[in-house]
């Protein structure tokens, strides 16, 4: 064992009459508290046989199938009792959720107990596993052990009082009615090649409460940070010993003179590891103030008074919140991957169909477009082509168009392409008053007109609601990273950029490419972008790609 590793001290002298030996123990404890707040004790009064029995309980519980352990899921109550799933907690920033599962047990607080009624810290009935073998023995051993370690914690606090040169009973107001939690912990054997940083049994942390008494099995993994050297020291398991460490609450009361030290667990042993920490918080209403002899004359306390309950609750919130946030981030990343796969699945076939449509099948320009360009023969050919494809007679001929032109007395010069202004004028003629009057010409026409307008109005409202509100609702409901503002900002940008799609399409179809090639080209570019979209990894690039594909989509629609 490295010389700085927490020393193993014989606590039995605390109970004996050898004052010199007791004074020496107190000095050693004081030194440990100043150094890093960690030490191990043997010679306490918790029987070895009870320790072995309780370790057996821990193993028995964790051997249960997951669904049976989940019957007493800790998330079902607010008083910190029950089963905690693997990877629920995350104490160290920058690591993954922790590779440990736990069972939280505390004093049996029935629902008519004042602590339960007043919703005091971690106070409520225990959640016992209904299917654990030897259930009665399980509950009885767990509580017997809890009370034995509770008493030991009081003794250790008595000894710590002596290190501060106050009476052994100094902490009685803290220990009377104290709340404590013990955890059965199981660290599954970590895969050999697992990345250490992401596979902590417990990430580097300090304990929240007053003091912790930890029973380890024979598998090592606990390490304490040696502040002066920055080295991680192994806290080797000593059969029957308790690893005692001070928590943040004690350090605060001691005005930082005594240390609550950083520690962690990495189970590299290749074996299952079990441990049972006992976290002694104290009476929830106890006001933690600066302890005597923890400041120089004239020196003020570093921290204002705080109750045990306030302090411990805040620490819990912080560490569980971190694990939750991490999981949300992973979820968001998974969503990006899922989007990629969706786009590849959709973009691939659409690109293939575009290529087939452009190069395998002969696609004619639409007759209406050809006519507007004065290409009557092309219009006739297109209609014939469609008829032929469908095995129908081909009734349309060029002379039919010429007859119509002659009948309308249109001079042959206008058979050439129409000017854009002429097309526009022609289109505007549709908007004369007589056309609108016809819409309400009879009762049934009026009814039908208003019904149709009503339908389109509803569709017009439903469309943006569906495309904008639903995704934004989903984005904010299921992802912590997306905010409503961001989602709407993105839609505004997308829609504004999208306007350029129809405008450029309106111009480009009048150029040399015509409608057919512009449609084909835009479909190809859309397909290429959909593929490229799939490779995007950050939010800004995703937004940019969404805008371009939306613009191309509008382009495509208008060209049709
Ligand atoms: O399991 C261990 O050895 C340490 C547990 C611990 O540090 C904790 O639960 O806070
Ligand atoms: Fe700890």
Automatic annotation (TrEMBL):
<feature type="transmembrane region" description="Helical">
    <location>
        <begin position="488"/>
        <end position="509"/>
    </location>
</feature>
<dbReference type="GO" id="GO:0046872">
    <property type="term" value="F:metal ion binding"/>
</dbReference>
<keyword id="KW-0812">Transmembrane</keyword>
<dbReference type="GO" id="GO:0044283">
    <property type="term" value="P:small molecule biosynthetic process"/>
</dbReference>
<keyword id="KW-0408">Iron</keyword>
<dbReference type="InterPro" id="IPR005123">
    <property type="entry name" value="Oxoglu/Fe-dep_dioxygenase_dom"/>
</dbReference>
<keyword id="KW-0223">Dioxygenase</keyword>
<protein>
    <submittedName>
        <fullName>Clavaminate synthase-like protein</fullName>
    </submittedName>
</protein>
<dbReference type="InterPro" id="IPR027443">
    <property type="entry name" value="IPNS-like_sf"/>
</dbReference>
<dbReference type="InterPro" id="IPR026992">
    <property type="entry name" value="DIOX_N"/>
</dbReference>
<dbReference type="InterPro" id="IPR036259">
    <property type="entry name" value="MFS_trans_sf"/>
</dbReference>
<dbReference type="InterPro" id="IPR050231">
    <property type="entry name" value="Iron_ascorbate_oxido_reductase"/>
</dbReference>
<feature type="domain" description="Fe2OG dioxygenase">
    <location>
        <begin position="178"/>
        <end position="282"/>
    </location>
</feature>
<keyword id="KW-0479">Metal-binding</keyword>
<dbReference type="GO" id="GO:0051213">
    <property type="term" value="F:dioxygenase activity"/>
</dbReference>
<dbReference type="Pfam" id="PF14226">
    <property type="entry name" value="DIOX_N"/>
</dbReference>
<feature type="transmembrane region" description="Helical">
    <location>
        <begin position="450"/>
        <end position="468"/>
    </location>
</feature>
<feature type="transmembrane region" description="Helical">
    <location>
        <begin position="521"/>
        <end position="546"/>
    </location>
</feature>
<dbReference type="Pfam" id="PF03171">
    <property type="entry name" value="2OG-FeII_Oxy"/>
</dbReference>
<dbReference type="InterPro" id="IPR044861">
    <property type="entry name" value="IPNS-like_FE2OG_OXY"/>
</dbReference>
<keyword id="KW-0560">Oxidoreductase</keyword>
<comment type="similarity">
    <text>Belongs to the iron/ascorbate-dependent oxidoreductase family.</text>
</comment>
<keyword id="KW-1133">Transmembrane helix</keyword>
<keyword id="KW-0472">Membrane</keyword>
């Amino acid at each position: 064992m490295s010389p700085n590793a927490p020393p193993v001290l014989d606590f039995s002298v605390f109970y004996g009459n050898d004052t010199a030996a007791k004074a020496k123990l107190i000095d050693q404890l004081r030194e440990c508290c100043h150094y890093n707040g960690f030490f191990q004790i043997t010679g306490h009064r918790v029987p070895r046989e009870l320790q072995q029995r309780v370790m057996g309980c821990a193993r028995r519980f964790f051997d249960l199938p997951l669904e049976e352990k989940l019957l007493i899921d800790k998330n079902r109550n607010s008083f910190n009792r029950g089963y905690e799933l693997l990877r629920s907690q995350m104490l160290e920033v920058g690591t993954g959720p922790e590779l440990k599962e736990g069972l939280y047990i505390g004093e049996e607080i029935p629902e008519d107990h004042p602590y339960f009624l007043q919703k005091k810290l971690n106070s409520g009935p225990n959640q016992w596993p209904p299917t654990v073998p030897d259930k009665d023995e399980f509950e009885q051993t767990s509580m017997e052990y809890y009370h034995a370690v509770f008493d030991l914690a009081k003794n250790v606090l008595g000894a710590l009082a002596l290190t501060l040169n106050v009476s052994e009973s100094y902490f009685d107001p803290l220990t009377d009615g104290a709340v404590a939690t013990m955890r059965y912990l199981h660290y599954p054997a970590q895969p050999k090649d697992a990345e250490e940083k992401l596979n902590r049994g417990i990430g580097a942390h300090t304990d929240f409460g007053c003091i912790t008494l930890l029973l380890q099995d024979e598998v090592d993994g606990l390490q304490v940070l040696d502040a002066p050297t920055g080295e991680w020291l192994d806290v080797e398991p000593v059969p029957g010993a308790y690893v005692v460490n001070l928590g943040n609450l004690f350090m605060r009361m001691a005005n930082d003179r005594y240390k609550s030290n950083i520690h962690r667990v990495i189970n590299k042993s290749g074996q299952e590891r079990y441990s049972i920490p006992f976290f002694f918080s104290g009476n929830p209403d106890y006001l933690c103030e600066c302890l005597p002899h923890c400041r120089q004359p004239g020196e003020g306390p570093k921290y204002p008074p705080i109750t045990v309950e306030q302090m411990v609750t805040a620490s819990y919130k912080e560490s569980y919140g971190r694990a939750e946030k991490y999981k949300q981030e992973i979820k968001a990343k998974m969503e990006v991957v899922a989007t990629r796969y969706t786009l590849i699945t959709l973009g691939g076939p659409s690109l293939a169909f575009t290529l087939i449509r452009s190069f395998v099948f002969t696609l004619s320009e639409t007759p209406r477009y050809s006519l507007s360009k004065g290409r009557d023969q092309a219009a006739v050919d297109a209609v014939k082509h469609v008829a032929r494809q469908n095995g129908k007679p081909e009734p349309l001929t060029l002379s039919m168009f010429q007859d119509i032109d002659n009948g309308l007395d249109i001079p042959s010069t206008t058979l050439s392409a129409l000017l854009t202004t002429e097309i526009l004028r022609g289109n505007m003629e549709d908007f004369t008053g007589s056309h609108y009057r016809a819409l309400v010409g009879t009762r049934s026409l009026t009814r039908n007109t208003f019904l149709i307008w009503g339908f389109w109005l509803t569709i017009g409202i439903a469309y943006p609601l569906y495309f904008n509100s639903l995704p934004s609702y989903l984005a904010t409901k299921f992802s912590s990273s997306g905010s409503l503002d961001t989602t709407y900002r993105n839609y505004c940008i997308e829609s504004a950029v999208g306007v350029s799609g129809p405008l450029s399409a309106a111009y480009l179809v009048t150029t040399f490419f015509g409608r057919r090639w512009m449609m084909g080209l835009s479909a190809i570019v859309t397909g290429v972008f959909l593929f490229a979209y799939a490779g995007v990894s950050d939010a800004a690039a995703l937004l940019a790609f969404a805008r371009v594909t939306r613009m191309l989509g509008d382009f495509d629609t208008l060209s049709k």
